[in-house]
Amino acid sequence: MSAACAPAIVVDHAGQSFGGRVIFEDVSFTVATGEVFVVLGGSGCGKSTLLKQMIGLLTPTKGRITVGGYDVVERVALVRREIGVMFQSGALFGSMTLLENVMLPLVMFTDLPARARAEIARIKLAMVGLAEAVNLLPSEISGGMAKRAAIARALALDPPILFLDEPSAGLDPITGAGLDRLILDLRATLDCTFVVVTHELQSIFAIADRCVMLDREARGMIALGVPRDLQQSSTHPTVRAFFNRDAP
Ligand SMILES: Nc1ncnc2c1ncn2[C@@H]1O[C@H](COP(=O)(O)OP(=O)(O)OP(=O)(O)O)[C@@H](O)[C@H]1O
Question: What is a single molecular function from GO for this protein (predicted)?
Answer without folding.
Answer: ATP hydrolysis activity
